[in-house]
Amino acid sequence: MTRLAGMAVVLALLTTGTVLAHPTATSFVIVTVTDARTARVDIATDVQSLLLKLEAYGGAASSTEARTPADRRARLAGQLPVLLNHVSLIADADAVTLTPGPIAAPDGNDERVRVTLTAALPDDAHTLSWRSSLFLGAYPVLIRGGDPSAPTDADAYEWLNGPEQSRAHPVSDLNVRSGGWTRFLRTVGLGFTHILPGGLDHVLFVCGLFLLAGGTRSLLLQISAFTVAHSVTLALAALGLVSVPSAIVEPLIALSIAYVAIENLMTSSLSRWRLAIVFGFGLLHGLGFAGALRDLGVSRPDLPVTLVGFNVGVELGQLAVVAIAATVVRFLPIPAARRRQWITLPASAVIAAMGIFWAFQRM
Q: If you ran DSSP here, which 8-state letter would residue 241 be given?
């Protein structure tokens, strides 16, 4: 019974939370208050997924796939009334009327779509918030002031889960640009929440490293290699010097998780190539992290602060995962000699299964 309880605690640690990975890589919402009475909502997501979802919600699901960009956008335009039933822009306590606007392919990517909505805000509106039942998982929302065409500085982002309502943003503050220190702290928060709770795939990867670390020094070396690698590709991607489609990156990230876990099952000691492999996987995960910043949009002047803050947040999230895992393992009533049998092997099996499942799901 003790053995089963110990296994249950470890597996709960590794699998707690919604099975989500890189929500910002598929869907996000930006609300821009252009003046005291006008708001613009830009919803960006995968076009085919949005179309199928809206047709299902509206009871007009089609058995045929929209094969051309023009076909998808035409069918999507017909489902905009359904979309409006699943989104709410709330001024104080009342939802304002949203009017459909253009449907476009952001940055010429026909696999994605940006749906624009506009609203006239009441003269006496004090706060503005957002809620949607359109997304089933976690997604980031940014409520800001200024020019809708200006690059996003990610000053007011927050993560929402499903139909959760955002915090109330004072309308009078939306046109006030935050200072560098405030932006830094907010991007630290974005990086942290991209790991906990928003990045279960990265959590499982770090847990896979932890399970076969062989000691604190070895674990720190692997985490450092992973950190340096993902910082490099994150910076290159954010600067526009490297661009790899998420359709390629996301399945490979899932396979990297499975690889580390399978290696844990196959051997009880680290290979001499482990550090190089972790570094290579870090380069891959950095491209995944870049999706969060790319989709939110970051202005070039804010990029250094944003990159540093985001990386600091990611590292704090990873260290939090390691600290939680180490604390749980330390207090489990399992002798050190039995930990591989009762902790490393079953936990690695779960991680490997999740990695393989995600790889097929993302492909």
A: S
